[in-house]
TrEMBL record:
Origin: domain of life: Bacteria
Source species taxonomy: Bacteria, Pseudomonadati, Planctomycetota, Planctomycetia, Pirellulales
Sorted UniProt keywords: Signal
InterPro entries listed in its UniProt record: TPR-like_helical_dom_sf
Source species of the chain: Blastopirellula marina
UniProt protein name: Tetratricopeptide repeat protein
N-terminal signal peptide: 1-26
Length: 367
């Protein structure tokens, strides 16, 4: 089977997504259905988009307005599942309250701190690791000077810096990897602040998992992934893309560690859920299906793997802008499987699709 390539390079990093009230991949029904009332999750998603827009434009007033509105809505619907708790929103608003007392010079430094955070995201999207690390290091140092070590902005900057730093680390220092220490410190501070039910804490758990993956420490990565899933379950977020992605992450790590039976069980946990397949959750479902197929192949249990690849290809065909090279990988993996199982009729069809797709791709540059 070819080396495993996930959709992370294609998908933008989307922290918050849920399954509720999304357009289906299937054709729309002929008769309109009555719209369900928006949930607190949907309200938080909408306000998060406003907050991130204000963050990108360095608009402090807009950030504050979005967070205050989200706090009000969250407090009024406290019993519903939520991404952000009231306590976390208060924690985020505290940074903005501090800015109100800043001097003009400090206000400009705060804008520059957010600008460097955005630059880090930009360079990460371009694959420029050196500039990503430099931008995030600068953002972290500025946040520490402006807000101190315990602030939301500082912990956010520290987590992003640790993630990018881990990609550059080849050997641990005598006392371990600096990126692990930085990320673990974020977890410890959030625990001390009693914010273990916060979105930032869940993000930190997942970040430490990815850091361990970068260091090929798969046993610890799996433990952190399981902690992330448990945190989502405590927060009643099992019907969100966050949880589906978490299941895929854990299954993927277990596959890397050749713990195929465990990986298959984790993947089944997501695949057996009854939810409507949409353009939003389709990539996540495809990743999880791939983890399931990979685990079955590792166990030499091929019975349901062809059906899994047929489903993945069907999803790929319905997703807008699905990368042709990624589809070629799926087809090539399927070709390998069919040669092994001896399904000549299906093999001929898949090889036809491979040949057709190869004519649409630019020629590979010689190595």
């Amino acid at each position: 089977m070819q080396s495993r390539s996930r959709l992370l390079a294609w998908l933008a990093v989307v922290t918050l997504c849920c399954f509720a009230i999304r357009p289906s991949l299937a054709q729309p029904p002929t008769a309109p259905r009555p719209a369900a009332p928006p949930s607190l999750l949907d309200a938080q998603l909408s306000l998060t988009a406003k907050y991130k827009q204000a963050l990108d434009s360095l608009d402090f007033a807009g950030q504050q307005a979005a967070l205050r509105e989200m706090r009000q809505v969250t407090a009024a619907n406290a019993a519903e599942p939520k991404f952000y708790t009231v306590a976390e929103l208060d924690f985020m608003l505290l940074d903005l309250s501090r800015r109100d007392a800043f001097t003009a010079e400090q206000q400009e430094a705060a804008r520059q701190q957010q600008s460097n955070r955005g630059l880090g995201m930009h360079f990460a999207g371009q694959g420029n690791l050196a500039m990503t690390i430099e931008s995030r290091r600068t953002a972290l140092e500025a946040a520490q000077q402006l807000y101190g070590d315990q602030a939301h902005a500082t912990l956010d900057a520290q987590l992003l810096f640790a993630l990018s730093l881990s990609e550059s680390e080849t050997e641990p220092q005598p006392d371990g990897y600096p990126s692990v220490q930085l990320a673990q410190a974020v977890l410890a501070r959030l625990e001390n602040l009693r914010l273990t039910d916060s979105l930032q804490y869940r993000e930190a758990l997942r970040a430490v998992m990815f850091i361990h993956i970068n260091h090929r420490n798969y046993p610890d990565a799996a433990k952190l992934g399981e902690s992330y899933l448990a945190a989502c379950e405590r927060a009643q977020l099992t019907a969100t893309i966050n949880y589906l992605d978490g299941l895929a992450d854990v299954a993927n790590v277990l596959n890397r560690d050749q713990r195929y039976a465990e990986a298959r069980d984790v993947a089944r946990k997501g695949l057996n859920r009854n939810f409507e397949l949409t353009r939003q959750n389709g990539p996540s479902y495809l990743n999880l299906m791939h983890d399931y197929a990979y685990a079955c192949i590792g166990l030499q249990d091929y019975a349901k793997v062809p059906q899994a690849y047929d489903t993945m290809l069907q999803i790929a065909d319905q997703l807008p802008r699905f990368p042709p090279p990624r589809k070629l990988e799926l087809l090539t993996e399927y070709q390998w499987l069919l040669k092994r199982t001896g399904d000549q009729r299906r093999l001929a069809e898949i090889e036809r699709q491979i040949a057709e797709l190869q004519t649409q791709l630019p020629p590979r540059e010689p190595k």
